[in-house]
Amino acid sequence: MSKAREIHCYDYVNYPYEKLRTVLGENSLDVFKDATRSAAKRAKSVAAELHANIGAIEIGAEIDLEIKSVTEDKDARSHPRTCIRLEWEASKATRLFPVMNAELWIYPLTATETQLDFRGEYTPPLGALGGAIDSLVGHKIAEASVHRLVKDLAEYLRRSAAAG
Fold it and tell me: Once rounded to an integer, what is the mean pLDDT over residues 125-140?
């Protein structure tokens, strides 16, 4: 069995935490789907899509994304924060792609700036062969896909906050 791999990335949105929390609170799953679809300009898809560009080649897979929980608490300094626990897997050829288990933390940095902080973990599929492929290119593809997802989500939240 391959060893679990971690991915961490973040982005900022120049809107207050409470405003973004309201956008996310309306329906987190739809926000993720809309963010990835609008970024990919594929509104007819019912699944979210992860994609990454490696050189001139675009690699992508439709995913089934599930929000496991949304919790709110306060950090050590009593600042509010929200944790969205999520999981996704490929919609097709599921044995060829890893399952991602992740947390997206959302918290204020200032009164007008909010951070999106993604921390995820996956185990490469296909045992030792999958681990070797992951070491060569798979982890880079997974990392690029997650970075693009967080970037797309941040852009979607910027547009939604500006419109609302």
Answer: 70
